[in-house]
Specification:
About 40% of the residues lie in helices and about 25% in strands. The protein has nine helices and 14 strands. Helix 5 links the parallel strand 9 and strand 10. The longest helix is centred in the first third of the chain and has 30 residues.
Length: about 260
């Protein structure tokens, strides 16, 4: 009888210990300052392959998989909210999303309103033209008599760079589109002379539209990072998880999955 009682006592004690550990773990999770407890909300614009795009009714891509891995390390469930690109940072600063990942470049202007994580990828802004275009190099855009119509996705770094470097100098007129695909379609139909956009989606758009090509010269090189509301204490936890994923090779494996040497 005493042996049975000891077994019962030990069983109850182990059960209480497991419950306490579970509660402790849940307590740690609940202390993460997410917009919704237990959920990591990522704001994005899923029109930017291979970083984020819709496939089979789900948002996939480099940013989506990195965010999923970060959420897993933090014991959170990832939710991705798709929205217009120019609404992404506003969603973060207004507290409607915990973070933003959308091929976001670290710029001084953006750093005035948001904080950034460690950079996890490098992006290259390139120029798409029609075959036979007189534009053969980025230098052509900066000639004294240049006056090109340029298509960009609204509020992206392609928009920012061409505005600062060309439109503000009287060398071009910028046409801003809601989606990168819309800017490319404007190029196909002759409404603009060129499109400035990130290299990876540029490759996808050119593959889908015969008659277009990417110039060999780069327009700009930039670092991609995760954006947070100013002073967000969640940034440190996410950044720690991101650094660990970079160090163990997870981020590179995800990038290699979507961007091949071809």
């Amino acid at each position: 009888m005493k042996k049975v009682m000891r077994i019962l006592v030990m069983t109850v004690a182990l059960s209480m210990l497991a419950t306490a550990l579970f509660a402790c773990n849940r307590g740690v999770e609940s202390k993460l300052p997410t917009v919704e407890p237990g959920i990591l909300i990522m704001a994005t614009n899923a029109e930017f392959p291979p970083y984020e795009f819709w496939e089979g009714g789900k948002i996939v891509g480099i940013d989506a998989e990195i965010a999923e891995a970060i959420a897993g390390k933090l014991g959170l469930t990832l939710r991705i909210d798709d929205m217009d690109f120019n609404a992404i940072l506003a969603a973060v600063t207004a507290g409607r999303a915990d973070m933003a990942m959308a091929g976001l470049t670290i710029t001084e202007d953006r750093m005035e309103s948001v904080d950034f994580s460690t950079s996890y990828a490098t992006g290259v802004q390139v120029i798409i033209v029609r075959e036979g275009s007189p534009i053969t190099s980025v230098d052509d855009l900066f000639e004294d008599d240049a006056n090109f119509d340029i298509g960009v996705q609204d509020s992206t770094t392609g928009d920012l760079y061409t505005t600062w470097d060309l439109e503000d100098e009287g060398l071009a007129t910028i046409y801003r589109y809601k989606r990168g695909a819309d800017a490319v379609q404007a190029l196909v139909t002759g409404r603009v002379d060129l499109v400035v956009i990130d290299n990876e989606p540029a490759r996808a758009f050119v593959a889908m539209n015969p008659g277009l090509l990417i110039l060999d010269t780069e327009f700009a090189v930039e670092d991609y990072a995760i954006a947070f509301a100013k002073g967000s204490s969640l940034r440190d936890a996410v950044d720690e998880a991101l650094r660990a994923l970079i160090d163990d090779g997870t981020v590179q494996r995800i990038v290699d999955k979507y961007i091949t040497s071809d």
